[in-house]
Structures are given as structure tokens and as C-alpha cells.
């Protein structure tokens, strides 16, 4: 009975949820409909008001023009009206008037197109001869019967207020119509200009407009006497009150019309759009809304059915998946967070959250296999578990990450426990009996009440751990203000990096390379610099490691490659003979299967020869995946791009590795150069160079700063030198000057170097 009661309760809740969802969908659709309608009517209002203002300004500009022409032509008009008309021909043509004319006080008129007529009966003439500026209503042209509007101003005797004639300009309503025929609502909208009595001044040629109508009120009643009766009355009230407003009417289909006063002759601009323009948008949204509602209901019903079907059978399995770590059999991170929330308030002792991982765990797996790697994780879990006291918990997360909660009274006690734990963990014996020295990184967050969110606490411990990751020996760090500041600084950099890339704030500095024997400039390395919009240079150490962690370095590398290609082409076009420039490529780029094609595409688009560009990859990139690396090198060699191994000697260098990768140049890391003077170090350098040469690999030494270093490297056959001894990284313009000096001024920049 209880089971059925629970079933009926679930079904009732589901039914209520569906009703609520349907009600919400209906209410939302209604609000969308009203919102879209209001939005489009406001758009129609804005378009109409803008159109009315544009017409008003057009008319006023024409009136001001005629006033100026009246003043200019008055002296000619006094003596010869026909000459005055001829004088105005250019103005008529320039300002798109059908004609301009001058009329004597008796109405006799002479026009720019050679017509003589009498306009004394025209209303605009009567107004103008009385001293007013006038714009006519819709008129029939005396000459050809075309529909026109006429602007008229009085002509005053020069230097007096005496009216001696009228200057008038005829404006074709076809030209007027073009002024208001602005495409809007996707070409579905159109406009009329009407007088206050509803008579049309300018009609529309739009396919859905009223055809051959004389009066807008009559046109409305003719189109639909029943539905348009109230609309025609409302429009009459708006026009006669000289205020704007909108109506809905029918002319084959429902339409919206907005009425805006132009401010001249009591004319009104009527802007029209079919209701279907709005309805189509509304229907599109509503259809998607209804479809989404149906989909949500279907998903909800399916979800209810699925939950009811599998809930009992899989409940324990789901709990195990969520809370049991499959490698150690202990807590998962999810279980740790749940238990930690319960444990935090249950003691008077202080609490610390510790985040820990193994440095170089990936390489341990590569050397000993994944089975041995899992054994190592279980060993660490067991040792940490054995060290815990009551009220302390431990969990294993992804890969080699662990998290545990410790209780303590003083920081000294906490550090003693951490150090004691490290001593137990440092030496691991593999199945084969080999002793492997573990290097651990630990981040410690002391719970201080600043946050009560266990996930945030774990994040802070993780952040502290990241600050000392891969130090080479077991290390720990506390989360504190400095760590927080570093995190905030990195967040600030990340918030700016995309904008900086888009706006070209990343620039190239070029550090020259010289041949050891001739001391001639033979190339350069392009080094990224970040010059912000305010001119401040951000040091590479502040952003390059961060970009390598978050993956943004891929975009920067691509950008720098393109930047250098374009710069080399500019130097070629300027007549400079550039030298090959090497550009750094992050190891993360190698995992992009399209990276080589992208770089080759950039090179082809730039038009630069592959002889002028090289790519540098760090030693660690070669070690991580030799197969991928060789494929990349082979593809680059096919198009003529040489490859350099950078930072040789800083990581997992292996002489045997050199035989497996077809690099062109090996770059000795600065750490080797710094040890010149030490007999053992010099022997190592000498033998590395000998071995590289035996494999047809050239050698460049980085970080050369003294004459003694240079002379030693020269003596052991090092091919190229890079460092402050010959030249520091410099902007493009300085490097261009160096090219000019080196190859065109007849001097030897390298030979002049004294240390």
C-alpha cells in the first residue's frame, strides 16, 4: 500500500508540474507577443518621427536656399527679370528643382526652363508677395500637368524692405517621394505625406499601399468600411490635433500606421508597416517556445518514468560511483566534500585542508607502466590514511591528486605532521625493487572563517599547491595574501588577454644571432612582448607561464608566427635583406592535428620564403611525444622550414634522444653557458657540440654575456651565439637598423663587440 501511495504521490506531483509548466509557457508566450508588438510599434514611431524630421529639415533647407538666392538675384531682377531667371539655371539643376522662376508683382513669371506664365492666382504667390515664405499644397504643373509642390519667397529691393517680386522653385512630387522612400522592416514598410484634410501630398508606389487615392480618410473607408471606421476617426483626430499616434487598419491585410507632424503646412507623415512583419517574428518565437514546452514536458515525463524504473535497483550503485574512488577504494572527492562539511564545526581544534599531488607522475607512468602508477597511488593513500587521527579524512581525486583534512593546535604541530608524512612517502620501492624518490607538492589552507564553503577551501589549497608545483623536491606552501594577490593578478591578465590579442598589443622583439667564426649577423629569435595600450610593457614572466597553463599560448604563438612573416615581407619590400628569424612554438600546439597546415597556410598567404623563418620547440616538447614531434618536423621540412630544439639541458635531456629527432639546430640552454669556467661543465659542453655535429646538427649557445664565454664556445666549435654579448632583444625598427648597418653600410656589427 505504501508503495502505491508513493507512486500516486509522484504522479500527482508530476501532473502539477506539467500544469505549472503549461501555464508558464502560455504566460510567457503572451508576454512575448505583447513585448514584440510594443517593440515594433516603438520602432515604427521612431522611424516615422525621424522621417518627419528629415522632411522638415529638407523643406527648411530649401526655403533658406531660396532666401539666399532671392538676395543674390534682386539686383538683376530689377533690371531684367528674364536675365534673373537665366542666372538661376545652375541653382535649379544643382538642387534638383524642376525649375526656378521669378515673378513680377502682377504675377507674370519667367522660369529657368524658358517658360513664361502667370502665377497670380497661385496661393503661394499671394503669400510670398505679402512678405511670407510659402510652401504650396499639392498642385498640378501649369506646363505639363505633373504633380508638384512649390517653394516661394519674396524678392526685396536691394537694401530695403520693398517687395518687388517673388522667387519660386518647383519641386516634383516624384523627387519628394524618393526622400521618404527609405527601406525599413525589410522593405515591407512605406510612407505617405498628407494634408490636414487628409488629401494626399505624396503617395507611395509600394505594392501594398493605397493605389491612386486622393484622400487618406476615404481610402481607409473604401479599403474596409467596417474595420477601418474607428481607425479613420482616430487618424482624423490625431491629424487635426497635430499630435502623433498610431492606428491599426486593414487594406487587404492588417497594418499599423504611425502619424507624425512634419511642421510645415500642417502636413503629416504617415508611416505604415504590415502587421505580418511583427506577427512573423512573434510566431517564430512562439513556435520555438511551444516546441520547447512540449520538449520539456516530454523530457520531464521520460525523466519521471526513468527515475521510477531504476531508482531502487541502482540506488546503491549510484552511491558507490559517487562516493567511492575506484583506484584506492577510499573516499572520492564528492564524498570528501560531503563529510568535511559535517566535520568542520565538530571540534575546538584548528582545521587545515591539504591538496597534494606527485611531481612527474606522468613520467613515472611512462617509465613503470600504469599498473605500477596505480600501486603508487594506493601506497600514498594507505600511508596518509595511517597517519590520520580521529575526525580527519582523506580522498583521492583525478590522476595523482589527493586532498585531506587535518586537525591541529599550532602551525608548528601542523608542519611537523606534514614533514613527518613526507619522510614516510619520499622513497617508494617498485615491484622490481627499484627505489624511486618521490617529489610531492602540497598546498595548505588553514580554515580561518573567511569562507564556510568546503569547495572554496579546497580551491585555495589547490592554488597554494600550484605556486610550488614542480620545484624538483618535496615542497609545501600555505595559502595567504600573496597567493591570493597572485591569483587576482593572473585573473586580471586573463580578462585582458583576448582584447590584447585582438588589438595587436603583443609585439615581437628580435634578439640577433651571430656566427661564431665570422661574428656576422645570421639570424634572430622573435620574442613576444606585451605592450599595453597605455604604453606599459608587461614582462614575459608575468604572462607566458600563465598562457602556457591556460592554453592561450597557442593563439599567441600563431599570432607571433604571422606577425614575423608579415614583418619579414615588409623588410623585403623596403629593400632590406632579412635574415632567418626563429619563432617559438609551444608544446601544446603539437596536439592540434591542424597546426602544421595552419602555419604553412600563414606562410603561403604572406608570400614569404620558408628560408626566412624557423620554428623553435622546447626540449620537453620533444621528450613528451617523439612520434608526434617527428611527424611535425617532417611536414615542416617538406616546405623548407627548419626546426630548432630550444632549452637543451633544462629538462629530461638525453643524448640518445638526439638520434630520434631530425632537428636542424640544437640550442644550448643558458645554464650551460653560465657554468663555463668549470672544467667538468666545459667538457660536457664540448662533447655535446661534438655529438651534435656528428649528427649533422648545428649548435647555438643562448645567454652568452661575456668575452670569456664567447671565446670558449668559439674554441669548441659552437656554430652560433645568442645573448647580450652581441645584442639584446630589440624592437623591429631597431633590428631593421641593425640589418641596414650589417649588410648595407659596410660595417661589421658583430666584430665590433668587445664584451
Plain-language structure description:
- Helices cover 49% and strands 20% of the residues.
- The mean pLDDT is 86.
- An eight-stranded mixed barrel has the order 20-21-23-24-25-26-27-28, surrounded by four helices. Strands 1, 2, 3, 4, 5, 6 and 7 form a seven-stranded antiparallel sheet that branches. A five-stranded antiparallel sheet has the order 9-8-12-11-10, sandwiched between helices.
- Helix 10 packs across helix 11 (370-387).
- By secondary structure, the chain is α+β, with helices and mostly antiparallel strands.
- The longest helix is centred in the first third of the chain and has 78 residues, at 2-79.
- A hairpin with a 5-residue loop joins strand 8 (190-194) and strand 9 (200-202).
- The protein is flat.
- The chain has three domains: 51-289, Beta-Lactamase (2-Layer Sandwich), CATH 3.30.450; 333-479, Alpha-Beta Plaits (2-Layer Sandwich); 500-743, TIM Barrel (Alpha-Beta Barrel), CATH 3.20.20.450.
- It contains 24 helices and 28 strands.
- This is EAL domain-containing protein.
- It is found in: Cell membrane.
- Its main location: membrane.
- The chain crosses the membrane at residues 290-308.
- Keywords: Cell membrane, Membrane, Transmembrane, Transmembrane helix.
Amino acid at each position: 500500500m505504501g508503495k502505491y501511495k508513493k507512486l500516486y504521490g509522484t504522479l500527482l506531483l508530476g501532473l502539477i508540474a506539467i500544469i505549472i509548466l503549461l501555464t508558464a509557457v502560455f504566460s510567457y508566450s503572451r508576454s512575448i507577443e505583447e513585448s514584440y508588438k510594443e517593440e515594433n510599434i516603438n520602432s515604427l514611431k521612431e522611424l516615422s518621427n525621424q522621417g518627419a524630421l528629415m522632411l522638415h529639415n529638407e523643406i527648411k533647407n530649401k526655403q533658406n536656399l531660396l532666401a539666399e538666392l532671392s538676395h543674390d538675384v534682386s539686383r538683376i531682377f530689377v533690371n531684367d527679370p528674364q536675365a534673373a531667371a537665366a542666372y538661376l539655371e545652375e541653382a535649379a539643376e544643382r538642387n534638383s528643382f524642376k525649375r526656378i522662376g521669378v515673378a513680377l508683382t502682377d504675377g507674370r513669371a519667367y522660369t529657368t526652363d524658358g517658360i513664361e506664365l502667370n502665377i497670380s492666382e497661385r496661393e503661394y504667390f499671394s503669400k510670398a508677395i505679402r512678405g511670407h515664405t510659402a510652401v504650396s499644397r499639392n498642385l498640378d504643373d501649369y506646363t505639363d500637368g505633373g504633380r508638384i509642390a512649390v517653394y516661394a519667397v519674396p524678392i526685396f529691393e536691394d537694401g530695403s524692405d520693398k517687395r518687388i517680386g517673388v522667387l519660386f522653385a518647383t519641386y516634383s512630387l516624384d523627387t519628394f517621394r524618393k526622400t521618404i522612400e527609405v527601406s525599413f522592416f525589410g522593405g515591407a514598410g512605406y510612407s505617405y505625406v498628407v494634408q490636414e484634410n487628409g488629401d494626399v501630398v505624396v503617395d507611395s508606389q509600394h505594392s501594398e499601399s493605397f493605389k491612386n487615392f486622393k484622400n487618406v480618410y476615404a481610402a481607409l473607408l473604401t479599403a474596409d468600411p467596417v474595420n477601418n471606421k474607428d481607425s479613420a476617426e482616430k487618424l482624423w483626430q490625431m491629424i487635426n490635433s497635430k499630435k502623433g499616434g498610431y492606428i491599426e487598419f486593414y487594406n487587404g491585410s492588417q497594418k499599423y500606421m504611425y502619424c507624425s507632424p512634419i511642421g510645415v503646412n500642417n502636413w503629416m507623415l504617415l508611416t505604415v508597416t504590415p502587421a505580418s512583419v511583427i506577427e512573423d517574428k512573434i510566431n517564430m518565437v512562439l513556435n520555438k517556445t511551444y516546441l520547447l514546452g512540449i520538449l520539456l514536458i516530454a523530457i520531464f515525463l521520460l525523466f519521471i518514468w526513468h527515475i521510477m524504473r531504476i531508482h531502487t535497483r541502482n540506488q546503491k550503485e549510484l552511491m558507490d560511483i559517487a562516493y567511492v574512488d575506484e583506484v584506492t577504494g577510499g573516499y572520492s572527492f564528492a564524498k570528501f566534500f560531503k563529510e568535511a562539511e559535517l566535520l568542520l564545526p565538530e571540534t575546538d581544534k584548528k582545521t587545515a585542508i591539504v591538496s597534494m599531488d606527485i611531481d612527474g607522475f606522468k613520467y613515472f607512468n611512462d617509465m613503470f607502466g600504469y599498473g605500477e602508477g596505480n600501486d603508487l597511488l594506493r601506497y600514498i593513500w594507505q600511508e596518509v590514511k595511517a597517519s590520520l587521527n580521529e575526525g580527519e579524512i582523506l580522498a583521492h581525486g583525478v590522476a595523482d591528486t589527493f586532498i585531506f583534512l587535518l586537525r591541529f593546535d599550532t602551525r608548528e604541530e601542523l608542519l611537523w605532521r606534514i614533514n613527518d608524512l613526507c619522510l614516510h612517502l619520499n622513497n617508494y620501492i617498485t615491484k622490481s625493487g627499484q627505489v624511486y624518490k618521490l617529489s610531492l607538492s602540497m598546498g595548505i589552507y588553514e580554515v580561518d572563517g573567511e569562507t564556510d564553503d568546503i569547495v572554496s577551501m579546497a580551491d585555495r589549497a589547490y592554488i597554494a599547491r600550484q605556486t610550488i608545483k614542480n620545484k624538483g623536491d618535496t615542497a609545501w606552501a600555505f595559502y595567504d595574501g600573496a597567493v591570493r594577490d597572485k591569483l587576482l593578478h593572473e585573473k586580471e591578465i586573463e580578462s585582458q588577454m583576448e582584447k590584447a590579442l585582438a588589438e595587436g598589443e603583443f609585439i615581437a622583439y628580435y634578439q640577433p644571432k651571430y656566427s661564431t667564426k665570422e661574428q656576422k649577423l645570421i639570424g634572430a629569435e622573435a620574442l613576444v612582448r606585451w605592450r599595453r595600450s597605455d604604453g606599459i610593457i608587461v614582462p614575459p614572466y608575468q604572462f607566458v607561464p600563465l598562457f602556457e597553463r591556460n592554453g592561450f599560448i597557442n593563439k599567441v604563438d600563431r599570432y607571433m608566427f604571422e606577425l614575423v612573416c608579415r614583418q619579414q615581407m615588409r623588410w623585403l619590400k623596403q629593400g632590406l635583406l632579412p635574415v632567418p628569424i626563429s619563432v617559438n612554438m609551444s608544446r601544446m600546439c603539437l596536439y592540434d592535428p591542424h597546426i602544421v597546415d595552419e602555419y604553412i597556410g600563414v606562410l603561403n598567404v604572406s608570400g614569404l620564403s620558408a628560408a626566412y623563418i624557423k620554428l623553435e620547440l622546447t626540449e620537453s616538447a620533444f621528450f613528451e611525444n617523439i612520434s608526434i614531434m617527428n611527424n611535425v618536423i617532417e611536414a615542416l621540412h617538406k616546405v623548407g622550414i627548419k626546426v630548432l630544439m630550444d632549452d637543451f639541458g633544462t629538462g629530461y635531456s638525453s643524448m640518445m634522444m638526439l638520434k630520434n629527432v631530425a632537428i636542424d639546430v640544437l640550442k644550448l640552454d643558458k645554464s650551460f653557458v653560465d657554468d663555463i669556467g668549470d672544467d667538468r661543465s666545459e667538457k660536457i659542453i664540448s662533447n655535446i657540440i661534438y655529438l651534435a655535429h656528428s649528427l649533422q646538427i648545428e649548435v647555438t649557445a643562448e645567454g652568452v654575456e661575456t668575452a670569456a664565454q664567447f671565446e670558449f664556445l668559439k674554441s669548441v666549435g659552437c656554430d652560433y651565439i645568442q645573448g647580450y654579448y652581441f645584442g639584446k632583444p630589440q624592437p623591429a625598427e631597431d633590428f631593421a637598423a641593425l640589418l641596414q648597418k650589417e649588410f648595407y653600410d659596410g660595417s661589421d656589427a658583430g666584430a665590433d663587440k668587445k664584451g
